[in-house]
Please model this.
Amino acid sequence: MEYLIIKWLHILSSTLLFGTGIGSAWYLLFASISRDTRAVAVVSRNVVRADWLFTATTMIVQPATGYYMAHLAGYPLHSRWIMWSLWLYLLAGACWLPVVWIQMRLRDVAAAADAAGQALPPLYWRYFRWWVVLGIPAFFAFVAVFYLMVAKPA
Model:
């Protein structure tokens, strides 16, 4: 029973982690493309909140539950699929940390532009480009981790 509870927590937290990431990216991308300063200010504020509330907590829960499940199931931690999963997870995390900082800058720049009744300035778009560039490898790293967790290839 204990393994099933940990597995449920692991799957639930992975769903929250990936779902929040995809949802946040979707809404911030399309709000930004709209160039509606007010919409971008609102969406970016909520994206930052979602990242701290859901993504940050699940980024901690995932490796903890994964390690404990591997221990309970008797999988050696040096298994190739576990090692690849860890490296890809670290890659995604290494992309996510600056993305959080960038999202806070996007939020602040958009809020200032909205308060001034101005369009999004070039600084917003520089940050936005970096947000996209870092988001792409994080997305594919998480997709690969999902595959490895399900398939557990030898």
Q: What stands out?
A: The CA atoms of residues 130 and 138 lie 13 Å apart. The chain has a mean pLDDT of 96. The radius of gyration is 18 Å. DSSP finds four helices and no strands in the chain.
